[in-house]
Amino acid sequence: MRAVNYRNAFAALGDPTRRRVFERLAHGPRSVGDIAHGLPVSRPAVSQHLKVLKEAGLVTGHADGTRRVYRVDPKGLGQIRAWFDQFWEGALLSFQAEVERDDVGAESEENS
Amino acid sequence: MRAVNYRNAFAALGDPTRRRVFERLAHGPRSVGDIAHGLPVSRPAVSQHLKVLKEAGLVTGHADGTRRVYRVDPKGLGQIRAWFDQFWEGALLSFQAEVERDDVGAESEENS
DNA sequence: ACTTACGGTAAGTAATAACTTACAGTGTGA
DNA sequence: TCACACTGTAAGTTATTACTTACCGTAAGT
User: Which of A39, A105, B4, B62 sits at 20 to 30 Å (Cα–Cα) from A46?
Assistant: First the structure.
């Protein structure tokens, strides 16, 4: 059995196409062919993405006739959110503490 | 000017080592060598990870003597959170309409 | 039973990226 | 100025992975 942690979830959502698949599912349950229709990849590719998303605990799938209907799994979503929230608070706090200590008004550094 | 979207952020946090670097920064600003000390990768690897995190808008870096001190960028964090929240609500609502599942309590597994 | 629709899996390929060592650049102290 | 400490970058290697086509199993309609 897979880990179903935020670890895999982040890796899963890291891929653009896979994130696209996930976003479609957020609008409601959909079949595989339905998801693939409109995406620039083949249906097998979508199946593989769904497999990864499922193992990451982000989606669940159940049979409906010959179709496979997938939907977002709120449990997996909650795990990422939990990890992120712990982060959000901690990082924000330690940042605000810095701001108050010495003035950090200059955010001039940008990447190339 | 870079996109600084949640897109790059997810890809950035997808890598375990890079996420490790990011987590260290959440405890407070640190120098590159400080981050690398204790990680199973070389210092140049950490530098490369920091570059990716910076381009993803997740961290910022400023010079302090010969050291480079990095810290978490709350702006980048906020962008992911915004994307995630929009998702969280929408997906959860359309799902809760169907069934009432249990919450996000189950989190115990580890791997590798 | 036959045919069709739908989707998961196998196998193979090509692009990405995470890592290494070697080197260059910059700031600090004697 | 010389030596040292710290870090970013270059170049190269290796493992991962996202994608393709081909195939197989299963469910529904005729």
Answer: B4
**Which residues fall within 8 angstroms of residue B78, CB to CB, at 6 or more apart?**
none
Q: Is the CB of A55 under 7 A from strand D?
A: no
A58: how many CB neighbours lie within 10 A of its CB?
A: 28
Backbone angles phi, psi at A68, to 5 degrees: -115, 115
Query: What is the distance in angstroms measured between the alpha-carbon CA of B60 and the sugar C1' of D20?
Result: 40
Closest CA to B73 of A92, A102, A10: A92
Kindly determine whether residue A95 and residue B72, on different chains, have CB atoms separated by under 8 Å: yes
Query: In DSSP terms, which residues pair with A30 in a beta bridge?
Result: A70
**Cβ of residue A105 closer than 8 Å to a chain B Cβ:** no
Instruction: Using only the alpha carbons of chain A, give its radius of gyration.
Output: 19
